[in-house]
Specification:
Layout: E1 8-17, E2 21-27, E3 40-43, E4 46-49, E5 52-54, E6 57-63, H1 64-69, E7 80-84, E8 104-113, E9 118-123, E10 137-140, E11 143-150, E12 154-159, H2 161-166, E13 177-182, H3 184-195
Antiparallel strand pairs: 1-2, 1-7, 2-6, 3-4, 3-7, 5-6, 8-9, 8-13, 9-12, 10-11, 10-13, 11-12
Length: 200
């Protein structure tokens, strides 16, 4: 489990095409400290497994399903990525419960800067809109954010200078894809209510 509090802005150092999969080599001095084979690291919000670890780099295999359902397929050597290690039991939950299981992708539609923050509008797949509410939580490229406005096909978030400086959302431009993970609690509630014969 992750919290959506990005630990560092890492970099893709190599991408190997494996036909029905890809192997990524990524640099991240913070997240690789103490990393071992089999450990999990969230890359732009996608939970990946460490295959190899050497120095401040690690490799992870990404199957075709993940490449198709997330924005990881658009990564290339030199791409910047958000990195986070799983939260430790007993640690502070600074963001919200994040699984690292991407529900879909959106596209940055618009950026509106102001003096102390920036509002970013992101497209929202129709099948995810019911899980997104104003003042609720959403994960964008692995970043735990609060929804400002929730529309039928988009939502907005306000980004503080720290988020702009330390995550990929400071770099993303209109047209760029982002990974989305909605609040798992909303999906569980929906499922439970469906088991009682419908929503109320």
């Amino acid at each position: 489990m992750f919290t959506g509090i990005v630990e560092e802005l890492g970099e893709v150092t190599a991408v190997e095409d494996l036909g029905d999969a890809a192997r990524f080599r990524l640099r991240g001095p913070v997240v690789t400290e103490g990393a071992r084979h089999g450990d999990s690291i969230a890359v732009n919000g996608v939970c990946l497994t460490v295959v190899e670890h050497e120095g401040d780099e690690f490799t992870a295999d990404v199957m075709a399903e993940t490449l198709l359902r997330s924005s990881l397929g658009a990564l290339a050597t030199g791409s910047r990525v958000n990195l986070e290690r799983p939260t430790a039991v007993g640690a502070r939950l600074g963001g919200h419960i994040v699984q690292g299981h991407v529900d879909g992708t959106g596209t940055v539609l618009e950026r509106t800067p102001s003096e102390h923050w920036e509002v970013v509008r992101i497209s929202l797949p129709a099948d995810l809109a019911r899980y997104v509410v104003e003042k609720g939580s959403i994960t964008v490229d692995g970043i735990s954010l609060t929804v400002v406005e929730a529309g039928a096909d988009h939502f907005t978030v306000s980004l503080i200078p720290t988020t702009l400086a330390l995550t990929t959302l400071g770099l993303k431009q209109p047209g760029d894809p982002v990974n989305l993970e909605v609040d798992i609690v909303a999906k569980y509630v929906e499922r439970l209510l469906a088991g009682q014969g419908g929503t109320r």
